[in-house]
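Annotated sample (chain length 358).
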Amino acid sequence: MKTLQVDLGPRSYPISIGSSLLGRTELFSPHVTGRQVMIVTNPTVSSLYLKRLRPALANYTVQVHEFPDGEEYKTLEQLLPLFDQLLTAQFERRCTLIALGGGVVGDMTGFAAACYQRGVPFIQVPTTLLAQVDSSVGGKTGVNHPRGKNMIGAFYQPQAVIIDTDTLQTLDDRQFSAGLAEVVKYGLIRDAPFFDWLETQASALMKRDPGALSIAIARSCEIKADVVAQDEREGGLRAILNLGHTFGHAVETAMGYGTVLHGEAVAIGTVLAARMSLQLGGVTPQDLDRLLILFQRMNLPTQLPSQLTADTLLSLMQLDKKVEQGQIRLVLLKQLGEAMISNDYPADLLSQILTVSL
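Output written by the structure step:
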């Protein structure tokens, strides 16, 4: 097992990464306050891993709540039955919520924890690669709105993140590839040697080699933890973690939540951001080719869905959280391994990039 730390002063917390962690009481008990625990999951994950988790919580009063499985259910309406169950069972302020699942479960559980009785503790137990390397770390919680992804939420840090890498062995291939898009992102924005390593290890990762996966997950979490420690609430630096996301969120919203997976949309958006960066002198044509080849090896899309239009995407990108005074700020690449946040680009370049990519 490897343990990392997200250094946020009194809100600091550990990230534990390893095999067979779900049933280990010593990883959970230091972070469970009171005696009441609500495990929040979905039917798919519950059938696979709830029994493995329960022994770690044998000394607590435990209830389970299941959200429907899918990005389309990441809504405010789906939180109400959870609040009903918490209130009916008289869960107190010292209760603890445990998010057992992927990014949707983690985001919704975290937001529920931030809201219930104005804030109760929660623990992230991510079971998808995307959640393990990205959404479970950093305290971004929330739900989608028909007009924009993750537009309703809160910054609310977990008490701990417990990553059992065994859960990746049951993840379907499409979801697994989607998680790799976020792994590649970390190399692009902050660690060019890590990007090089991913190129050499792409085959091993696609075969779900435990050693390669552990290295990829740990390095991704290290990079994210370092960025979050410097900028918890995305006042500046943390925005680089959104490489490809302004484009990607627009694709998800336009296509209907769940049609294009988040990681797939991020891959498409990352290619668009790289194309923008190429036009602005930030990366080379060879860098772009390397990215395209790596995504293709990971079975990730690199083209916008043909049914979309540039105007549709531009209108949705105007709703991005990084927009300031009507200007769409994008995460772009100064070079491979170094990102920047900028709205300093020709007014027509963004539209051109979207148009030629359709």
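Annotation: The radius of gyration is 20 Å.
Annotation: The chain has two domains: 2-170, 173-356.
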